[in-house]
TrEMBL record:
<dbReference type="GO" id="GO:0005737">
    <property type="term" value="C:cytoplasm"/>
</dbReference>
<dbReference type="Pfam" id="PF00622">
    <property type="entry name" value="SPRY"/>
</dbReference>
<keyword id="KW-0862">Zinc</keyword>
<dbReference type="Pfam" id="PF13765">
    <property type="entry name" value="PRY"/>
</dbReference>
<keyword id="KW-0479">Metal-binding</keyword>
<protein>
    <recommendedName>
        <fullName>B30.2/SPRY domain-containing protein</fullName>
    </recommendedName>
</protein>
<dbReference type="InterPro" id="IPR006574">
    <property type="entry name" value="PRY"/>
</dbReference>
<dbReference type="InterPro" id="IPR003877">
    <property type="entry name" value="SPRY_dom"/>
</dbReference>
<dbReference type="InterPro" id="IPR001870">
    <property type="entry name" value="B30.2/SPRY"/>
</dbReference>
<dbReference type="InterPro" id="IPR003879">
    <property type="entry name" value="Butyrophylin_SPRY"/>
</dbReference>
<keyword id="KW-1133">Transmembrane helix</keyword>
<dbReference type="InterPro" id="IPR051051">
    <property type="entry name" value="E3_ubiq-ligase_TRIM/RNF"/>
</dbReference>
<dbReference type="InterPro" id="IPR043136">
    <property type="entry name" value="B30.2/SPRY_sf"/>
</dbReference>
<keyword id="KW-0863">Zinc-finger</keyword>
<feature type="domain" description="B30.2/SPRY">
    <location>
        <begin position="23"/>
        <end position="219"/>
    </location>
</feature>
<keyword id="KW-0812">Transmembrane</keyword>
<feature type="transmembrane region" description="Helical">
    <location>
        <begin position="7"/>
        <end position="33"/>
    </location>
</feature>
Length: 219
């Protein structure tokens, strides 16, 4: 099980390809994913966390990388080293969402306490113990956690540049699926086994903020 901190379930890591990422924020229903669809959640990107080369648009549901820095105000939550940003809401329980993209992207989750300033290994999605990440590029798909890389498979076709992410917070799993027109393909599942300490936190009326997961994108 994940610790009961807000899992920032979306760190977006933007590559230097100026395409866009799109969050599917409406209720998602696929006959082949009916169980997950019942747990569909709406997500929006948090402009206060976005690196200054990241541009948000369409009510903070799409994002792209820009060669020019944006006039964002200084904010303690803003990433200043990695081209990434978080979603506004931390997630617990069971949640399902989808991301569509062009180019390269990292999709994953992190605790809110992840570093925001400098130090690539401390702030980049999947390069520390506080975050989990699937990296999609033109060569391979990689799973990252605690700076350990696992090679998964060949790149997906352009027709399947949509990924569904399913969090089961109490079971400690974060699963990724390639979403196709009439099916889905399991890509990878991160698993953090339940611990007594975590169960104690879950039973309490309020969850410590540092254990809630947040969605993250890395461009």
């Amino acid at each position: 099980m994940f610790k009961s901190h807000n899992l920032i379930l979306f760190i977006c890591s933007l590559k230097f390809v100026f395409y866009y990422l799109e969050f599917i924020l409406t209720a998602v229903f696929h006959p082949f994913l009916s169980v997950y669809s019942l747990d569909a959640c709406e997500l929006t990107l948090d402009p206060n966390t976005a690196h200054k080369n990241v541009v948000l648009f369409e009510n903070n549901r799409k994002v792209r990388l820009s060669p020019e820095k944006q006039p964002y105000p200084e904010h303690p939550d803003r990433f200043d080293w990695c081209y990434q940003l978080l979603c506004t809401t931390g997630l617990t329980g069971r949640c399902y969402w989808e991301v569509e993209w062009k180019g390269g992207v990292d999709i994953g989750a992190t605790y809110k306490s992840v570093r925001r300033r400098g130090a690539l290994d401390g702030s980049r999605l999947g390069w520390n113990e506080k975050s989990w990440n699937l990296e999609f590029n033109d060569k391979n798909i990689y799973a990252w956690h605690n700076n350990i890389k696992t090679v998964l498979l060949a790149p997906l076709s352009s027709a399947s540049e949509r990924v569904g992410v399913y969090l089961d917070w109490t079971e400690g799993t974060l699963a990724f699926y390639a979403v196709l027109p009439d099916s889905q393909i399991h890509l990878y599942t991160f698993f953090c086994g339940p611990t007594q300490a975590v169960w104690d936190v879950i039973k309490s009326s309020k969850l410590p903020l540092q254990y809630i997961l947040y969605p993250v994108l890395l461009l």
